[in-house]
Amino acid sequence: MSHRTLAGTGLVVGYDRARPVLDGAALTVPAGRRLAVLGANGSGKTTLLRCLSGALRPLAGTVTVDGVPLRHSRAGLRAHRQEVQLVLQDPDDQLFSASVAQDVSFGPLNLGLPEETVRARVAEALALLAVDHLAARPTHQLSYGERKRVAIAGAVAMRPCVLLLDEPTAGLDPSAVAETLAALARLEEHDSTVVMSTHDVDLALRWADEVAVVVDRAVVQGAPLDVLGDDVLLARARLERPWALAVGARLRELGLLPGGTLPRDAASLLAALPDRPGVPT
Ligand SMILES: Nc1ncnc2c1ncn2[C@@H]1O[C@H](COP(=O)(O)OP(=O)(O)OP(=O)(O)O)[C@@H](O)[C@H]1O
To answer: ABC transporter domain: which residues (predicted)?
Structure first.
């Protein structure tokens, strides 16, 4: 795998030509950078990811990989799927084989790869997602969190350059969220660029290198502190300011937090606070 830059420009995407979900949206997934796609329910996050994956053809606009436009022919889509993989929000939309190993091997087998290569890819994908101990288990017996990680493993076995994850942490408990994030970090070491959609502004702030907000049928993209500190944009997008920015800004107003970049999570906020109690005069 190697890093590739996935981008969409002038995207008009939707299910009804008269009322597209996205109308002239642009997004760049910079190679090797973590991108979080945020937006309220129904704003069009899934629609955007489906379009970038090639699953949904835009009514207008172009999707490119390293500047080369995606063609929606059979051959074009087949080539695109080897570069870009989408993992759906609900693992039950994705898992259909009897066992975990069979499910994860489905994509590589479909590519016509030799059995030995498929076995190696499956073993690697299961290990990266820390679900190797589940290889022989029937998929329907797994917990929701396990099924979500197995679904990601299925995409990873295709060795995509860009992995698009639709709400990979939704419905997970905090330890399962941490396990998923650790798995994503291992994927990045294997040169996959990871994009996740989420409603969780706090997660986006602490995880992402860049943030894209789907709002008013368009996409606003930028640095996490800029985008998630923009109250006007957040209100338009029906999102809340991340707690770390809200609390950090208030502590700074009170003179309790030194200047510089605002902390992005609890650990860095606590580390930035003075080590003595009491309100400074
Ligand atoms: N297959 C479809 N046919 C018709 N309309 C659809 C279809 N899929 C989605 N939509 C509509 O497109 C809009 C955007 O939906 P989408 O699923 O992309 O939003 P989302 O931001 O991912 O939402 P959520 O956070 O609730 O998952 C919604 O109004 C939805 O009803």
So the answer is: 6-241
Q: Is the residue at 202 inside a domain? A: yes
**How far is residue 50's CA from residue 57's CA, in Å, rounded to a whole number?**
9
Nearest residue by C-alpha to atom 6 in ligand 1? 15
| Separation of CA 236 and ligand 1 centre (Å) | 18
For the full predicted model, state whether its pTM sits above 0.90: yes
Instruction: Give the tens place of pLDDT for each residue, 133-148.
Output: 999 999 999 999 999 9
CB 120 within 8 A of CB 128: no
Q: Look at ligand 1, atom 5, and give the residue with the nearest C-alpha.
A: 15
| pLDDT at site 216 | 96
**Which residue out of 11, 12, 13, 15 has the highest number of ligand 1 atoms within 8 Å of its CB and is therefore the one to mutate?**
15
CATH number of the structural domain spanning residue 41: 3.40.50.300
- Which domain, by its residues, includes 173? 6-91+161-241
Complex-level ipTM: 0.97
DSSP string for 175-199: HHHHHHHHHHHHHHHTT-EEEEEES
Tell me how many domains the chain contains.
1
On whether residue 267 sits in a domain, the answer given is no
- From ligand 1's centre to the CA of 185, what distance in Å? 29
Ligand 1 centre to CA of 216 (Å) is 14
Give the tens place of pLDDT for each residue, 120-132.
999 999 999 999 9
Beta strands in 66-208 (DSSP E): 68-69, 84-87, 162-166, 193-198
